[in-house]
Write a structure and sequence with these properties.
Layout: H1 2-22, E1 36-39, H2 49-56, E2 63-67, H3 72-75, E3 83-87, E4 90-91, H4 108-122, E5 126-131, E6 138-142, E7 151-155, E8 162-164, E9 168-172, H5 173-178, H6 182-197, H7 200-206, H8 218-241, H9 248-260, H10 273-292
Parallel strand pairs: 7-9
Antiparallel strand pairs: 1-2, 3-4, 3-5, 5-6, 8-9
The protein binds zinc ion.
Zinc ion (ZN) binds next to helix 6 and helix 8.
């Protein structure tokens, strides 16, 4: 189960890495990407910790959960199971453990290391001190690559869902099971990443449109619908630039719509799935035409 979750984490991170790196040129805000995923024993439930330790080989402190293939972390020779001893010479193994109750799962250590890594990567190349299975420490240098700015994370949950909050994207494990291929998952994540890149949450907040029920009726619904159309459009461009199939958008939504009806798409804020499928298909044709003409894959007119 933990191994399966780690594999799903890597699947999401790999798609996110490709979407965010491929999007450079059509997004305003950037944040460097390394392709490094970290975790810590304390984030797992107490009952799972012995399994987690046996499986992932945590020593004292956080470790590498996975590395996106072809990413700077991969090229630096970092691999799953490496313990992170220091970032730019500053030790991380001494990070305060959550007190007083260490028995509850806590992401505090993981979040702290992620924040320190992000801060270090913002300045450029980073030196990591790593160790594996009690072996000697080794030092590697990672030079991150430019990427569009958005977090993307996987949440274990039985409800099919994906959402964005302006900073990050969350996709549930149930949603992963609904998307058949990486192309389709890229469509779902690309749509939510596009919401963040287009600052939709801030725009809706400024217009006094919350996430509650009352935003779903009347003139406010129209504004929400506009943001949905824009996210679909930019999302498919991100998908195409990342090397995934832009036609997967129409494919996924027509299958999903047929299987689940309008569901959460039935309210006035989301275009009906048939209309959505038609627009996604036309965006895919537009991209195919640009490719055939050797034109850059930039939205028309450029959104940014
Ligand atoms: Zn949306």
């Amino acid at each position: 189960m933990l191994q399966a979750l780690a594999a799903q984490d890597l699947r999401v991170a790999t798609i996110a890495f490709r979407l965010l790196v491929g999007g450079v040129g059509i997004c305003r805000e950037q944040a460097p990407a390394s392709g490094l995923l970290v975790h810590d024993a304390l984030q797992y439930a107490t009952s799972l910790r012995p399994t987690a330790r046996a499986l992932f080989g945590f020593e004292d402190g956080p470790a590498v959960l996975a590395v996106v293939p072809g990413s700077p972390a991969d090229r630096a020779g970092i691999a799953a199971g490496d313990t992170i001893r220091a970032i730019d010479g500053a030790p991380v193994a001494t990070v305060d453990r959550p007190e007083p109750d260490r028995r509850r799962p806590s992401f505090a250590v993981t979040a702290d290391v992620e924040a320190r890594l992000a801060q270090a990567f913002d300045k450029g190349a980073v030196t990591l001190t790593l160790a594996r299975a009690g072996g000697p420490a080794r030092i590697v240098r990672i030079k991150p690559v430019p990427a569009c700015r958005s977090g993307v994370e996987l949440q274990p949950a039985s409800k099919r869902n994906a959402w964005s909050d302006g900073q990050s994207v969350v996709v549930t494990t149930a949603m992963l099971e609904t998307t058949g291929s990486d192309d389709e998952l890229a469509v779902v994540i690309g749509h939510e990443v596009a919401h963040n890149l287009l600052n939709h949450r801030a725009r809706l907040d400024a217009a006094g449109i919350g996430k509650g029920l009352f935003s779903r009726i009347g003139p406010k619904a129209k504004q929400v619908r506009e943001t949905e159309g824009e996210a679909d459009y930019l999302g498919i461009y991100l998908v195409a630039r990342a090397g995934y199939d832009p036609a997967a958008g129409a494919g996924f939504w027509s299958r999903y719509g047929a299987a689940h009806g309008d569901g959460f798409l039935a309210d006035a804020t989301h275009p009906g799935w048939r209309e959505r499928v038609a627009k996604l298909a036309s965006t895919a044709s537009e991209i195919a035409a640009k490719r055939a003409a050797g034109a850059p894959l930039v939205p028309t007119p450029p959104i940014l």
